[in-house]
Specification:
Strand order of the largest sheet: 6-5-4-9-12-14-15
Order of helices and strands: HEHHEEHHEHEHEEEHEEEHEEEHE
Oligomer: single chain
Number of domains: 2
CATH topology of the largest domain: Rossmann fold
CATH architecture of the largest domain: 3-Layer(aba) Sandwich
Structural class: alpha/beta
Helix content: 25-40%
Low-confidence stretches: 64-71
Radius of gyration: 19 Å
Number of strands: 15
Distance between the termini: 45 Å
Mean pLDDT: 91
CATH class of the largest domain: Alpha Beta
Length: about 250
Amino acid sequence: MLTAERKRLMLEVLRHEGKILASELSRRFGVSEDTVRRDLRELDRAGFLQRVHGGALPRTPTSIEHDVRQKESTDAKRRIGAAAARLLRHGDLVVLDAGTTPFAVLDRIDPDLPLTIVTHSLTAAAALAEMPKVEGVIVGGRLFKSARAAVGVATVDAYRLLRPDICILGAAGVHPEAGVTGFDGEEAEVKRAMAAHATRVVVLAASEKLGTVAPHLITPAGRLTHLITDTAASENILQPFRDLGVDVITA
């Protein structure tokens, strides 16, 4: 079998099964695992998949600028944001991630519900100034301009001191085995600190991000208490998260 044909078949397996195991492909194609790993490295470099230990997973959609993301799938984001807002309780200490989907939560919060919301997002901080019942706290750090958010050591250290009732995260990829992942290492470190001591960890993710993986781990999927996504997510994608004990909500 030619290398190009073998790679094409590998991508078909990935598309149909949602993951690739090097040992299984070695047996299927009658080649060594070293050959399979070399093919996977080349497909990874070409952007077709994300290599992980023992095989590969679907690569999450490419990161794009904040202003572009703000305009995408606005109806789905509003529904996801509304579902997340319904999880908030009187007096909660909330840590809110940067990103357009977490931002959608703010529009759906009950205006009479007293909360404390901590965020490193400049966009969210501006919105908190217009919410009289919410105590807003801004976490500082180095400005990550494309995300309009703070990152770095100061941001991470500030979150590590908190014991939030609920952490609301966005993510680039959410996979039951590979976990919740992001594109940028510094952003991922901030998100890890946000989730580390939270009683409830909620991830908001559009259906196309489910079953995919980005380079930087944020938290294992089993650490989540809730996953909120849109109604386009198929049951076979959602069930593995339920098997981990995650409360899956479609909106």
